[in-house]
Amino acid sequence: MVALLRSEQGIEDEESILKYIAPKLSLDTLKITPSFARKLEIPKIIPVPKGQKIFEAKLLISGLQSLIKYSANLEHYVEFLKKYQNNNHSFAKR
Questions:
Q1: 78: how many CB neighbours lie within 10 A of its CB?
Q2: What is the C-alpha separation between 93 and 18, in angstroms, rounded?
Q3: Domain enclosing residue 35, as ranges
Q4: The total number of structural domains that make up the chain
Q5: Are 32 and 44 in contact (CB under 8 A)?
Q6: Which of 24, 75, 76, 91 is deepest in the core (most CB within 10 A)?
Q7: Domain annotation covers residue 92
Q8: pLDDT tens digits, residue range 44-88?
């Protein structure tokens, strides 16, 4: 339980960073439900290119890559991108 709480706090910290830097990187954000994000162990706030607020594979990848290029230390977003690409652009959990 402690590990889960620490992980969720880490995700929330990274989401705060995303919200702060998104305008500087010309990114918008999409929010997904906390239960969906928790189930897949991904952040609840996802970066996408500015003006492209839709769930589409190439937009999610582009937004994540822009964010990670800015800061590769955002480990939950790095893991989400790897997970998403390894699952052939699906939200299915392996």
A1: 16
A2: 23
A3: 2-86
A4: 1
A5: yes
A6: 76
A7: no
A8: 999 999 998 888 889 999 999 999 999 999 999 999 999 888 876
